[in-house]
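Team,

Forwarding the record for the chain on the shared tracking sheet. I've put the sequence and predicted structure together so nobody has to dig through attachments.
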Amino acid sequence: CFSYEPGRRVSLSGTPLNEAIISLHQILPTFQRENKLQKVQCVILTDGEAGFINRHALVTNYKGEERIGYKRLVAERTFVRDRKIGNTYQVNYRCHQFTDLLLNNLKDNFVDMNLIGIRVLAPRDANQFIKMYYNDTWSEEAVKEAVKLNNTWRKEKSFTIKNSGYDSYFGMSATALNQETDFEVSEGATKAKIKSAFVKSLKIKKLNKRILGEFISLVV
């Protein structure tokens, strides 16, 4: 019996969330320019977290020859510097903190943008996801907030995280999303028509109305 696996260069690896965030530095200004927009609403939808991104560096092979390779980022000893705006960001230990670093850098480059995250969660993943953002310090306030969000999740199958790199980070149940109805608006619809369509769809959705109402307040 033989086991075959794809080579490293054709493997999909993990969730390419960090790579997508970096690519937005080119996508956002192009989108804004081509559509003649004054303000951009950026929504990032993901079903998982991302790992660290390696850095390019000179490495020496077994023959003593130098070449361009890569090395891992060392937490608290590595800094990311944006040469365009001059800001420097310290790399922390946790993977989600590195994603927040990239999100904060994105917001520093596009100050008029609303940055909204949507994390699709299986029921078993919600508690661990909340802990990433509120139980790191184990302070009394953080623990209380984690308990509050878990209670909200059990009742409403959704919650909002406010201390991430996003302006708002919505956790939503994958099960509830599977039961959603179509949301359609015509091309060039006004803000009033978009809001009206949201309100109409909420009447038969199982997702929490407060969460979607907060989303509307950010983008309208």
